[in-house]
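Here is a complete protein record:
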Amino acid sequence: MEGQEVVANGNNNGSLKLKPSSSETRGKNIQCKAAVAYGPGEAFVLEQVIVHPPQKMEVRIKILYTSICHTDLGSWKAENEAQRAFPRIFGHEASGVVECVGEGVTEVKEGDIVVPIFNGECGECCYCKSWVTNMCERFGVNPMKKVMDSDGKTRFTTLEGKPIYHFLNTSTFSEYTVVDSACVVNIPPQLASSLKQLTLISCGVSTGVGAAWNSANVNAGSTVAVFGLGAVGLAVAEGARARGASKIIGVDINPDKFIKAQAMGITDFINPRDEEKPVNERIKEMTGGGVDYSFECAGNLDVLREAFLSAHEGWGLTVVLGIHSSPKLLPIHPMELFNGRRIIGSVFGGFKGKTQLPHFANECIHGVVNLDKFITHELPFEEINKAFDLLIAGKSLRCVLHL
């Protein structure tokens, strides 16, 4: 393809920059490879698409790495009818280099290394100006959104000019993507050599670790239960471990996950299928009445109830991270909240992306959180369908695709 190529800066500091090729691409259409989904659950089609230039307050990014999350899986399957917008380019965990910027963009420039984020931060709305929330009025997480905010159009089209829809403000299953500047995090250039690992802070690791640090504020010596030991659940465990939790109980129906979970901080493991009594009763026995913090990472209402009842009366906090596509409501009677237990939801781990993620990236690379433990597979981008098969089979935490 014509465009620009990513090369080492040559100054031994690990940074990256874009080296112009024979054809300047700034402000022009780019033809590149993308994985396009044409229907719910249909295999991804690797084909050439047109990526249009960024408009006002937009950024076009050359994607170097992207990974696959359960949110991609659920949305690709269109588990919620409202998600049925096809053809579509999925993907929301990635890292890359800024290829060009649209009018008005000042926070990033061509050649900067970045990660896109699905939960943006415009910095101007009342949500962004409040430190009580990490929501953004205009660019918050919205899995139903399928076009760009500025003009209601797509930046992807087929070679014949037909629109291809966006996903979660990011659409990273493409060699190039266009995102709103509110959804781009500038990564310190000294961390460029770790860009593959930093792909994971676009979603899963930030969501889990942040839930432990920001949403729950896990304290040293506290007890924790994590329901669902996928990547997000294990990131919660990693965050609780880093905070000095004394006991971290992992709950999952797959016993094979315990070996990996031990390396992430899980101290005890419960398989509900092996228990004769409800899991919450078992946890109460193990902890003297319940855990200080429970995290529901499975997206299952029955699991959510067990997580809630596992929290200690008087002060126990349950944090909901799982994606619940069912229209069913919370399985909690209002009077059950009068015994001191609390329940909250957490989006993107409570992180304000543009403001706080650069510091978190630095903490990860310096060992506070071990990102390498989450990468179980690496494949070329062309094998994206195989990567989805690994996730569906429960064999991978994060499979990183190299573009």
Remarks:
- Residues 353-365 form the longest helix (13 residues).
- The longest strand covers residues 58-67.
- The CA atoms of residues 380 and 402 lie 5 Å apart.
